[in-house]
Design a protein that fits this description.
The protein has seven helices and 18 strands. By secondary structure, it is an alpha+beta fold. Among the domains are: about 1-120, 2-Layer Sandwich (60s Ribosomal Protein L30, Chain: A); about 120-240, RutC-like (60s Ribosomal Protein L30, Chain: A, 2-Layer Sandwich), CATH 3.30.1330.40. Strands 1-2-3-6-4-5 form a six-stranded mixed β-sheet. Strands 7-8-9-12-10-11 form a six-stranded mixed β-sheet. It starts with a strand and ends in a 9-residue tail after the last strand. About 50% of the residues are buried.
Length: about 375
Amino acid sequence: MDNNNPTNAAGTACTQTEIFKFQPTSGVAEYHVMIGVTDTDLPFAGQAEAVLTTFYDLLDGELKGAVPVFKRYFLSDAANQADVLLGMSEENPDCPVSLVEQAPLNKTKIALWAYLQTGVQSQVLHNGLFEVKHGAYRHLWGASAYNRAANSEYQTRLLLNDYVMQLMEQGYKLADNCVRTWFFVQNVDVNYGGVVKARNAVFATQNLTEKTHYIASTGIGGRHADPKVLVQLDTYAVGGLQPGQMRYLYAPTHLNPTYEYGVSFERGTYVDYGDRRQVFISGTASINNKGEIMYPRDIRRQTERMWENVEALLKEAGCTFDDIGQMIVYLRDEADYDVVKAMFGERFPHTPKVFVHAAVCRPGWLIEMECMGVKALENKNYAPF
């Protein structure tokens, strides 16, 4: 029997930890961990040390035997914090580490989302991707890829072309194996257009079109420590999938196809394995099935419509919010934090989540969220996860 159960842990005296556990009776267990700081008086080094100590205490205690698969640190000032954090971390990271300036909205300087699994073998490949292997599948994670080309369009082209080559080296294709991408865009109101243009162009060369499919994705405001870096890319791909094992979510009663307003990503994706279904919901905002922003300038109603859209996508995947292991909530205006935190706290009191300051790709959207989930499944057509 699986234990699909979010729990709260106190963490250290100055941190708060939320943990989601998916623990089948056999096979790989999965965990999502969110660690935040509660003491705003600590300097950055003190806050970072508290987060790291809490995380490694979990690895030695409650989550002993679990292997970190992916970590993302949310920073309030990457230019002054990224080097400090990396200097405090292990020289050879145990998994891909994503660093992005998206300030935690509880007025602290750092927060951590970590994804862990049991019973897996992991290693860094020569091309920089991290391989997590178990059973019939190879999971390839990438974090914080960047370059310093002249503008956001060129940077995105280089990022995607490099990623296509990384996958080709492993015998994989962007269209067949990539499950999820994240684009973090400095000054998204100005630079997102270049990201869209480049992504559309590269995807067209990879058989990713409105007649085939795209890739689940989030494109959101976020800064690198280097101001010349306009776009960062995180990625996740799976090798060993059979045709039809990965499917795409549309919820046409609530959302329109993204190509109708010139962009190329899927609203969500799910992957079936022999023992579970994993679902990945892209960055989702308050939009209707005509591509129109719903409830401009009303944070409460935008939040409710966003939930409704996510719920429709989850339903299409045969899932509910009870299956969700983590939520990342992006707010354009810091002043909306108290309202939104209270709303999420009432509806999702036990789901691990983090609220960060990040502009959504359309100025009229005040809020966006993404999430990942997993539910038990018995499908004899596929090998277990």
